[in-house]
């Protein structure tokens, strides 16, 4: 009987504060084998998102087997399951994966090929790893949930307010909204974040700590046709209700800690919807291959120079010590762009 192959990984057994020595642990695990439509990916780079810190956050729970986080991966296909048709060994891929399966903070990782895309040829693995989760979220929020047209002519004169525009999702949403021909108003509260959002193509910057309507009037846009909320839904709820245009649309990605009064939208016949990029993989929806398609389309936009990576900080190697630093940075709530780790050692 041969010994099973192992791989390096970073995981947890207990849900602890990031300062605790056991919050994230270096470990050796059995290397997985792909079945069905799974591909086995040799992980080259990973990115850290707020979802990682939320899953890891302290709670009264202990895992019997290691919990592996990480939902942003770029790597090379090592092996394919017997039902795979989209990729073959040697292909370079990028993806976010599924919240209901082990994450990508490991040397090798299984993912359903229908939610993986071909890595942009013009980017290295770290630059590509910065993109999937935030790009899928931004793309689905804009085009699938709010129904923003991809036709620039159809969006002439229309505007979008992006709350939290300097973060990971905001950094992509600004670019996609601009690509779609919308007038983009991004919120930022610090000079460095405002500068970043301007660089990405926002037409105007307003402060999310101040009432929106007065600031919009100051720039000659009394209301926004679309509002994309990427920060504290309840904190901005009344503000969004005032700022959204009649028959406008609001989409949020941030769960609320309290009930929302939907009546603030009634007189305007305004719509509210959620975006959760793990929905398709979590429920194995009939259209889950749409994430494969959008990642491939995004790669084309990147290689054409229309959309740029949002990588702002690189760390190496991929290990518990560096992942702890990245989690602490995210939890501080002042990130601009994305933090990426590359290379297992």
From TrEMBL:
Residue spans crossing the bilayer: none
InterPro entries with a match to the protein in the record: ADH-like_N, ADH_Zn_typ-1, ER, GroES-like_sf, NAD(P)-bd_dom_sf, Quin_OxRdtase/zeta-crystal_CS, Zinc-ADH_QOR/CCCR
PROSITE patterns assigned: QOR_ZETA_CRYSTAL (PS01162)
SUPFAM superfamilies listed in its UniProt record: GroES-like, NAD(P)-binding Rossmann-fold domains
Family to which the UniProt record says this protein belongs: Belongs to the zinc-containing alcohol dehydrogenase family. Quinone oxidoreductase subfamily.
Protein name, as recorded: Zinc-type alcohol dehydrogenase-like protein
NCBIfam families associated with the record: adh_fam_1
Subunit structure: Homotetramer.
UniProt keyword Methyltransferase, yes or no: no
Domain called Enoyl reductase (ER): residue spans: 19-341
Keyword Ribosomal protein: no
Pfam families documented for this protein: ADH_N (PF08240), ADH_zinc_N_2 (PF13602)
Native source species: Paenibacillus sepulcri
Cell compartment(s), UniProt: Cytoplasm
């Amino acid at each position: 009987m041969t010994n099973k192959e192992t791989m390096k990984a970073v995981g947890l057994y207990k849900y602890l504060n990031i300062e605790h020595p056991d919050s994230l642990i270096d470990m050796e695990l059995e290397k997985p084998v792909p079945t069905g439509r799974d591909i086995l990916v040799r992980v080259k780079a990973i990115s850290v998102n707020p979802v990682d810190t939320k899953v890891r956050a302290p709670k009264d729970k202990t895992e019997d087997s290691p919990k592996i986080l990480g939902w942003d991966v770029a790597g090379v296909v090592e092996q394919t399951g017997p039902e795979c048709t989209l990729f073959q060994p040697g292909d370079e891929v990028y993806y976010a994966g599924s919240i209901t399966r082990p994450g990508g903070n490991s040397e090798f990782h299984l993912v359903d090929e229908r939610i993986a895309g071909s890595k942009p040829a013009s980017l290295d693995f770290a630059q590509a790893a910065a993109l999937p989760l935030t790009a899928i979220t931004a793309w689905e929020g804009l085009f699938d949930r709010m129904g923003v047209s991809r036709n620039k002519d159809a969006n002439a004169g229309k505007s979008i307010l992006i709350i939290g525009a300097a973060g990971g999702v905001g950094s992509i949403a600004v670019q996609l909204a601009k690509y779609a021909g919308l007038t983009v108003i991004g919120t930022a509260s610090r000079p460095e974040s405002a500068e970043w959002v301007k660089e990405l193509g926002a037409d105007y910057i307003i402060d999310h700590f101040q009432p929106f309507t007065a600031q919009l009037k100051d720039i000659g846009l009394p209301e926004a046709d679309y509002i994309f909320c990427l920060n504290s839904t309840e904190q901005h709820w009344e503000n969004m209700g005032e700022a959204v245009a009649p028959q406008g649309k609001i989409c949020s990605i941030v769960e609320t800690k309290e009930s929302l009064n939907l009546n603030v939208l009634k007189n305007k016949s305004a719509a509210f919807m959620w975006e959760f990029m793990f929905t398709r993989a979590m429920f194995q929806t009939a259209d889950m291959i749409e994430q494969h398609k959008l990642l491939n389309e995004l790669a084309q936009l990147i290689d054409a120079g229309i959309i740029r990576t949002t990588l702002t900080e690189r760390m190496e190697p991929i290990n518990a010590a560096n992942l702890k630093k990245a989690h602490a940075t995210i939890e501080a709530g002042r990130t601009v762009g994305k933090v990426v780790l590359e290379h297992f050692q």
